[in-house]
Amino acid sequence: MNLILEKQALPGLLQSWREQYDVYVPQKMERFSHFMPLTEESVLVTGEPHNTRIPPKALFLPMTETLVKFTRFGGYEDAQQNVQPRVVFGIRPCDAQAIQLLDTSFIQEGYTDPLWLERREKTITIGLGCHQPCHNGFCTTVGYGPFNKSDLDALLTDLGDTYLVETLSEAGEACFQDLSPASDDIYEHALEIQQIAHDQMPVAFETENLKEKLEQNFNSKFWEEVSQSCLGCGVCTFLCPTCFCFDIVDETQRKQRVRNWDTCMFRTYSLEASGHNPRPSRVERTRQRLSHKFVYWLDQVNQIGCTGCGRCVRYCPVGIDIRAMLRQAQTLPFEVSHAV
Amino acid sequence: MQSEARSPYTPIPMHVLHAYYESTDRSLKTLELSFDHAADSQAFFQVFNPGQFCLLSVAGKGESALGVASAAWEGDFVRFTAQNVGSVTSALHALKAGDALGMRGPMGNGFPLDDWKSKNLVIIGGGCAFSTLYALTKHVHHEDHRGDYGKLTLVYGTRTSGLCMYKHDIAAWHEDEDMEIHQAIDVPEDNWLHHVGYVPDVVRQVAPSPVNAVAVVCGPPIMTKFTLPALVDLGFSPENIFTSLEKRMKCGIGKCGRCNLGPKYICKDGPVFSLAELNALPADL
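^ inputs. structure came back:
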C-alpha cells in the first residue's frame, strides 16, 4: 500500500507508537548518529546524508549480551532477555539488507540462535530510503540499492515536505493505518526520485569474476600489498553491518557467560591453545575479511556479504578503502572456471 | 542437535565419574562423565556418532572443544581426554570424581560410518588426536558392528611410549587377530617392540592396500600434512581419505565465525572432511 505522510506529523506518529512498542530512531550522539530509544525529548536525525556510525545490527546482536548464568551448585541456566515489541524507524536499506544476510546465519534449521530470533520476531523495521547518495557508499555496486526493500516492513521516500510510505507487510501497514493513500502521480514522482538516487550511486568496482579472482589468488602477493598499512584495529569489522563474529567469555564475578563482538582482524581471534595460528599476520586476516564477504557468502547463500554501506571506508583510521582493494583485485590474473 | 527447551549456548549438567591420567608425564587426563539427567543422556545417545565432539564447560574458566573418546555401547557415560595446555584444560585436569561440569554437544558430523560399510578401514592416529579414532575403533570392533566392515588396520604413533593413550585396550588389540595394529614412537626406547619413526613413514612401510578401503587420519597438523600425500601415493583416492580438523572454537554451532575454512565451519560442517572436500577449500589451517 502506498501512503502519504506529512513530515510535520512524523514526530507525533513516532510518539504514538510508544504506546505499544519500544521505538528506536537515529539520534545525535557526539559527532555521530545512533539508534537509541525514543523519548519525549528525542531529536530525530533523518536529514543527514550518511548512516549511523554503529549499524543497527547492534539492536539484534548487542555488542555484549549474557548467554548463560552460572547457578550456585555448578549448574547453568539460560540467560533471560527482556525484549519488548519494537519498532526500528529510519533504518537505511543497506542496513536492513544486512539484517537479512545475518538471518541466513543465525536462523538455520537445527542451528538457530534463540536470542537473535526473539529480537527479530519482535521487531518491526521501517526503512528510510536514501534520496541523496552518501559518501563512500556503494550499495548498487554490490547488487543492492538506496531504496532496496529487503527485510523492511515499510519504506519511506523523502519527497520534500512529505514522505511516501510503501508498506511491505501487515505489521508495516498497521503502523501507518491512519494515513491517506498516495495518488498515482505522487507514487510516480517517488519512483523517479528512487531511480535518480539509484543512478547517482557510482560504480565503485566491478563484481564480475571477482569471486574467482579472489579465490584463485589466495596465495598472491596482492594480500601483502593491500594489508600493509592496516593497523589491525578491527574498526572495519566492528562497524560492518554484516560482520557477526563474537567471542564467548566468562565473567566470574557476575557469574555469567557473555558474548561480545569479536573480529577476524585480531590475532587472538584464531589463535589456538597450542600456539598455532592459522591467520598469524594481518595478511591472512585481511584475506579472511575480504574473502568472507566476496567469496564465502556467495558460496553459502549466493549473495555478496557486503551491502555497500561504506562504514569500513569512512572510519578506517589509515584510510584503507575496500573499493580500491577490490579494484586492484580485479587486475589479478584468473582462469574462467567451467563449472558443470 | 538443538533441543527446544534449552538455549544451544547453555551446557547440560554433568558429573565426573572417573578421572585418571592417561600419560606418564601427566599431560593427558581422561574424564569419564555421567549425565545428571536421564533425558539429556537419551538425547545425547540418540544422535551421537563417533568423530563428534563436545564443548566441556568449567564455569568461570570457559569452554573447550574435545573429541568424544567413547563408543555408545560402552555405557551411559562420555569419555574425553584433555591435554593440559590452557586455562580451561588445566581446570579440567583439576577435576576429581564427583565434581560437576557442563557439556554441550554432541557437535559436528562425525565419521560417515554408513558410507564406510563393507569397506576395509585403515585408521591412522597420532598423539592425543587419537581420541576420536579410539571411539571409532571401539565402535567398529564391537561385535554388533564388526560384521559391517572389512579388514581393520590401526596405525598409532606417539612421541614416546609414555604418551600412548588407552594402553589397556591397545595392549589387548595387539593380541587380537581380528585387527592389524602398528604402534610407533618417534625416538627409540629400551624394550620397545614396535615401530620407531614418524607416522607418515610407518604408513608407507606398512603400506595398507587401497583396494575397497578408506583411510582416516587424525593427528597433529604436521603429521596429517605428510600422511595424506603418503596415502595418495599408496593409491587411496581423495574421496576415500578422511581427516578430522580442529580450529579455535567458541560457539560450536557455526555462529561465532572463527573456525571457518572458506565457506565451511569446522564445528558445524565438519570436523570430519574427506581429502576431496579439503582439496576444494582454501588452505586456511
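The interface with chain A takes residues 1-2, 6-13, 57, 59-63, 85-86, 89, 99-102, 221, 246-248, 250-251, 253-258, 260, 262-263, 268, 282-285 of chain B (CB under 8 Å). The mean pLDDT of chain B is 94.
thumbs up if we can close this ticket
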